[in-house]
Amino acid sequence: MNTLDLHFSPGRYLAPVVDWLNQHLHPVFVAISQMIEAVLGAVQAVLLAPPPLMLIAIVVALAYVLAHWRIAIFAAVMLLFCLFSGLWLASMQTIALVSVAVLISVAVAFPLGVLAARVKRVDAWVSPLLNVMQTVPPWVYLIPAVMLFSLGRVPAIIATVVYGIPPMLRLTTLAFKQLPKDLLELGQASGASPRDILFKIELPTAAPTLLVGLNQCILLSLAMVVLAGLVGAGGLGAEVTRGLTRMEMGLGLRAGLAIVAVALLLDRLSRGALQRHSPRQLA
């Protein structure tokens, strides 16, 4: 007796779509890849141009100005660990990848979050989409990115961007929804233009929540580092992958600790900026 075959294969339906996209939109994907590679190469060149100790001194000075002297010392310790562990190049590659991914995520999420906060219909469409995006495991985003952009740093950045957009978008929407109406009415009553209201009232008031969103975006982007190493993105993720495949416990441990160091560095810097822009100080 024949049994009913209930097996469902989504690849059967997605493969023709991917083939059509690669055939008809290949120049678009090439242009996107070249643009991302150019930006990533520029950021990486800036990080690797000065000697390591000079770059560490620059980061320490920025940490002191943006946050606190304790965070400046902490930044020095984390960067010195990356240097003396022999993973300076991989660490800078990882920081460059995360920086570009966060920059693109913020460029997409911030205006869309502002629009969602002001237009209810947009918010109604965006909210369920964000729920799905935050439920899907992060490595799933690598599959369509690799199908469209092949292996390398570009699909890793695109997957990281998709994974990092939801927290920034959600908190941007929340920040602008919670703006005190009396401040907005005061700005309108004083004859301020919409641009002045945005930059002089809304953004300073929403800054603490926006910085929390930026912090979450950075941490989630760093969570993709190891997965990015699986598709040839380089950096510390590639070192972790190399340590696992070759059973080199020392390399894998050093690379893992370097990822922790980079994560703590970026987290403390963003949190320090958040404390500097706390509601009490903004008031």
Q: Main sheet, how many strands, which sense, barrel? A: none
Helix content, binned percent: over 70%
CATH superfamily of the domain at 87-282: MetI-like
* Mean residue pLDDT: 81
* CATH domain fold name of the domain at 87-282: MetI-like fold
List low-pLDDT spans: 279-283
Distance separating the two termini: 77 Å
What overall geometry do the principal axes of the alpha carbons give? globular
> What fraction strand?
under 5%
InterPro entries: MetI-like, MetI-like_sf
Subcellular location: Cell membrane
Main location: membrane
GO molecular function: amine transmembrane transporter activity; carnitine transmembrane transporter activity
Give an account of the 3D structure.
It is found in: Cell membrane. Belongs to the binding-protein-dependent transport system permease family. It is a multi-pass membrane protein. Keywords: Cell membrane, Membrane, Transmembrane, Transmembrane helix, Transport. It is globular and about 65 Å long. α3 packs antiparallel against α4 and α5 runs antiparallel to α6 (120-135). The termini are far apart. It contains 14 helices and no strands. The model is unreliable at 279-283 (pLDDT under 50). It has 283 residues and is mainly alpha-helical. It has a domain at 87-282: MetI-like fold.
